[in-house]
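Give me structure tokens for this 328-residue protein.
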Amino acid sequence: MFPETRLRRLRESRPLRDMLQETRLMVQNLIYPLFVQEGAAGRVAVDSMPGVHRLSTDLLLEEVEAACRQGIKAVLLFGVPETKDEAASSAYDDQGIVQQAVRLLKACFPDLLVITDVCLCEYTSHGHCGMVKDGRIDNDATLPLLAQTALSHARAGADIVAPSDMMDGRVRAIRDKLDYNGFSGTVILSYAAKFASAFYGPFRDAAGSVPAFGDRRTHQMNPANRREALQEVLSDLEEGADMVMVKPALAYLDLVREVRDTVLCPVVAYNVSGEYSMVKAAAARGWVDERQIVLEILTGIKRAGADLIITYHAKDVASWLNSQQCGE
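Here you go.
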């Protein structure tokens, strides 16, 4: 008790503070999400996500090379196709934009971990994550298409497939499809606890996946539900998921911690587009210090229990962390 116990003694010097730091954010914890577009060459700025672009495949290689130089070891690919239809046929086309990008990345960066988002929303003409019948998302009719999409990504060389659709049973459908076709070593990272969140708005601008009607509340989770999130996580693990994700991150840190305390597998948190854009907007107005607040946010996500963090800040954060190590 005070005055014998003075906790400030352990904060007096920077070397002591550094030695006693309990949570460490490292470059190896970061996954860099990227948008690759079909057709038009060059880069297209995403107005609602400053610093983020849709990239043609040649510029994707340049961006990934720059990220690799900073020590980033994993990317998450989202495809922006040239054509869309009701059956999302370009999602599982072996010559689709994601499949092309995976082959290029694995040829140029064989040690890079390539993760692919498995969903149909970017590829359907109506913008929903599954097949629409009579104005409703048909869960079971969607599963074979998701499984075929995951298989086409694995055939192209993806190390990890990440189903984000939130259809019931999709992890089992994908695991069975991969195993039957000789891809038992392909990792499944399930968007297990994915909430129907207002934080996704800028992403939908980037991916061109705004629903033409309705919303996604029939399959994405109610933000108020904690027990259901744990049930989703445990269900996906039973079906064959190797890693699980909580998305978004900031408003759901309690669930990141609870999932971490419940399961033994790796836990991933997605620092989503709205979280990114809010920081960028505030920093552009001089209201916050971008470097300090981003590092604090990501350290908080790591402290909550995330092993890996998907973040659009990844390349900048890697540069900052490398600078810290060099004593700059």
